[in-house]
Design goal:
2 copies of one chain form a homodimer. The first copy, chain A, is built from 12 helices and 10 strands. Chain A is an alpha+beta fold and 345 residues long. Chain A folds into 3 domains: 75 residues, Orthogonal Bundle (Arc Repressor Mutant, subunit A); 152 residues, GAF domain (Beta-Lactamase, 2-Layer Sandwich); 94 residues, 2-Layer Sandwich (Enolase-like, domain 1). The structure holds a DNA duplex (30 and 30 nucleotides).
Chain lengths: 345, 345
DNA sequence: TGTTAGCACTCATACCAAACGAGTGCTAAA
DNA sequence: TTTAGCACTCGTTTGGTATGAGTGCTAACA
């Protein structure tokens, strides 16, 4: 990339056009640019340059004799070459830190909170997924009787993530459950969750010989339960922001986005497709999903202890404040990394 | 109620008008009625009756020389006297039964699933709350070390609801935690959550004399934690249906509803206000919330073991199929009652 | 006395042409 | 190479008219 066949002045003009369009949502004309931006050239000159920029594919004209709007390619150039990512303010940082480090203990709450912050600071839709649980190490474990037929399995990782899984079983004496879970813990503590497979559980049987039948019974249930940990949990917040965006003022258009995001099936695939780069910006057709052609997504990946990872996604109209959103995504991504990695005391 | 100063024929005409308006969303005129509905009178007669019905407050005229639309009072009469609630089909029943009785064990999943069904069958917004936790009896309790400074308090009710609360404390030896939680359980088991106050916890101290300082330390933390249980958990589904409703085609209007529903604060109050009757229908201004003036809500209460209760709410435009929605709400409400009460299977 | 036909009137909506104006492309002069 | 000027385009606004759905009222009718 980097090497665009385009003059410095053209770049400046493109920048002005896109900035203005992001502000006003209106096709922008040469006169507007020459008046509002101190480029030192007349509207006629700008007019010529705009014609060239259109020919190069950076601009589009909704109809003859209207102003220009950026094409996806134009946005791409803008994002690559022109957006400057200022760091977010100290106040925002403080809020984010306090909201994410304060009294949140469950992974799902943390993700939800992060999504909320993200959508509030950007006024856009935010989605945060929970890191795959199975790369973390087991730190604590309990089996708790919930009813005569149900048991709650609680897993705590060394990173402080808590996860509970309901098991359906008809063998629910709390005394036995305590013995089993104590033994399991002493046996599995420090193991990564993904390594807790049937084979390792089988060894448990030796340690609990007097409870052999119970363990036999428990193993397939545990196996199922651990499998259910593989799904990606995600939290979306700020959907209603879509309704405030001019591009989606027509509720038909808003509905397209809503319906896409509601369909979990879609979302799962969508999230998988989303780049696993540290930070990725996809604009309109680059997303490759027709119903999101009018949108851009900015996504990032956060790592937990450098291993398992979760995703952060902001979805908005192409006409968004890229610099601002990128900086917020970055900051929250990093914070989330830290918090999940257990650096939080 | 029951005794409306209104003739049989006026009732018939009102019914025809409201039915037609629910179908078409257009103000309905006298001629439409005389043609579409076999009332055996001419449009002129209907015209006269409509004028009377307007004077009585059952109809409104958006502007002179347009057709009539029902007033809130008109809808009220319609709902009270004219809607007939047919039972829902056997197919629907089967779907609901299988979705709610099948492999769901967590209260929150159950509520979520019920809300989903409700919104899918009605094409409207559905909200389902989980029965208030603090009227349930304590069935199980554990303290689990999460990190050196964090402990998880897990509460299980006799109705099978699981709740975990984070405690920040620097006294986190799992062996001690086990002893304390075992004693607490033996001591508090069967007590309703709301009765677990400081006084009852104080008695715990006697039972754990050798851990006196620990209990001193624990009590204020527990007190805080229990306070945080008072919130009502609720699940809303089908928000996007709003966007398909003519009344809210303007995304400004849709946003009003969205914003109201998103604000948890609002929702909490709103849910408290919602009638605790077995079944309640509120129309427009009857709701008493300005931003919902264009809506009706149909709500019901389901009981768990005749004690604690949860709410079921369907929110839609006043122009909704009341008969259908009522029957679905009723059926799901009853099913939910059953499932929650007999959750141990 | 209740019902109906007829008619004048209202008023939101559709329609259409003209005026407007923001913006362009092109040309010619600086 | 830049700029001023100008003719042209085309979506939007404007205003005036027609349309028609619907009303209220009156008078005739059963």
């Amino acid at each position: 990339m980097g090497d665009y066949m385009i003059s410095e002045r053209q770049l400046r003009i493109l920048e002005a056009i896109i900035s203005d369009f992001i502000d006003t949502a209106q096709p922008v004309g040469s006169r507007t640019i020459s008046k509002k931006y101190p480029l030192g050239v007349s509207s006629a000159t700008i007019r010529n340059e705009m014609a060239d920029l259109e020919e190069l594919g950076y601009l589009e004209q909704p109809h003859t004799s209207s102003g220009r709007i950026p094409s996806d390619l134009g946005y791409r150039l803008y994002v690559d070459a022109l957006v400057n990512v200022h760091s977010i303010g100290i106040d925002e940082k403080e809020i984010i830190q306090s909201m994410l480090r304060n009294r949140i203990i469950e992974a799902s709450d943390l993700a939800k909170q992060a999504a909320k912050l993200l959508s509030e600071f950007t006024n856009l839709v935010a989605i945060v997924t929970i890191p795959k649980f199975n790369k973390c190490k087991l730190a604590n474990l309990k089996l708790i009787k919930v009813s005569d037929t149900r048991v709650l399995l609680i897993l705590v990782t060394d990173t402080g993530i808590v996860k509970n899984i309901q098991l359906a079983m008809s063998y629910t004496d709390q005394f036995i459950l305590d013995r089993v879970s104590d033994t399991m813990l002493s046996f599995l503590s420090g193991e990564t969750i993904e390594n807790i497979d049937v084979r390792s559980i089988l060894k448990l049987k030796h340690k609990l010989q007097n409870l052999g039948t119970f363990v036999d019974y428990l193993i397939p249930i545990l196996k199922d339960a651990l499998k259910s940990l593989n799904g990606t949990e995600q939290y979306a917040e700020g959907l209603s922001h879509i309704l405030s965006i001019q591009e989606f003022a027509d509720s038909e258009k808003a509905k397209v986005i809503f319906d896409f995001l509601r369909d979990a099936q879609n979302l799962e695939i969508f999230l998988d497709e989303v780049s696993t780069d540290q930070l990725s910006i996809k604009i309109g057709s680059e997303i490759g999903i027709e119903s999101l052609d009018a949108c851009s997504i900015i996504s990032s990946t956060y790592k937990v202890d450098g291993k398992s990872d979760g995703k952060i996604i902001v979805l908005g109209p192409k006409r968004m404040d890229y610099g601002n959103v990128v900086s917020i995504v970055n900051y929250i991504s990093n914070t989330l990394s830290d918090v999940f990695s257990g650096i939080n005391l």
